[in-house]
Fold:
Amino acid sequence: MQVLRRGDVGPAVAEIRSTLIALGLLSGNPQDGEVVFDADVEHAVRAFQQQRGLITDGLVGPATYASLRAATYQLGDRPLTYLVSHPMTGDDVAALQERLLELGFDAGRHTGVFDHMTEQALRSFQREYGLIADGICGAETVRALRQLTPKVRGGRPVLLREQEQVRRAGPRLRGKRIVIDPGHGGRDRGVVVGTNSEADLVWDLARRLEGRMQATGMEALLSRGTDQCPPERERARFANEAGADLILSLHVDANASPQATGVATFHYGTGNGTTTSTVGETLAGFIQRELVARTGLSDCRTHGRTWDILVGTRCPAVRVEVGYLTNASDRAKLTDPAFRDTVAEGILVAVKRLYLLGENDQPTGTFTFADLIRHELAKAE
Ligand SMILES: [Zn+2]
Structure:
């Protein structure tokens, strides 16, 4: 196309004018039939270019023209689908992507380009809501997207259900069923440094946690025996079949650099943070804070991940990497049984905090096992 600039006259200019008026960037009547590219039009074009991250030159070349066209589409104006050779672009595509993200379907960044990822997210949405999963955003899909948005804003329905379950479960630990998942096992020793193996350390830690949980009246189940190493998916299935309230996966980390050190906790979540298990994230935060406060391990923070154990479980799942066995200082801590008791207590207190829904003001790191038992007994009366 010909590049249009100030001083140009003609029907193409009239079209640009009416688009800019429709976008609220130029005053006037979209049907005024004005055909002159004047100073006001140039000013509006610059404003538009600035908004859209285009080169702000006040000229209407192919890129600016395409963006102006794209800006006129609203969701529902036309059916949207993935055209491999000539992807559809427009504000309607951006709106679709944003809506899918809000609903917890990862459509990538809302680029306004209907790409493969958008198609996959759209199909998942259609499948989950009982629509024909054809990857075409037509009238019916638009209707479903509009109806659903206000109800499920803030997360996927299944993740909202998790929150409701925790609330309903009440503050007491008694009767809650927790699957403790010691990583690795059997022939898979995990990280091995000298005579110390991750499989043995997390097994021992799991047993300490199990004992404390049972003392509070919780039902603690281990996901494996000492000499077994079920795949992650099987561990997740075990938790699902047990109808677990939570699954806690225990690991220690390794790094090529002996300097790498600290504790990190992981929950279900996509990298961009739009889809996350709120309960998982909350619990991960409590565990992370308690462990950092109690153990002196450095804080490697909490992170959303899509690992099998986090994705495949129906209940909230958290994985803790308690220090680096490859770091001398972390290793000295991990091999001390008293340290593992401290970690077990920190995790248990974090679980208690989850069910207290933040209604406990005892500072992080100070809630003891004895306090916890007392709290449980008081509640029982
Ligand atoms: Zn591991």
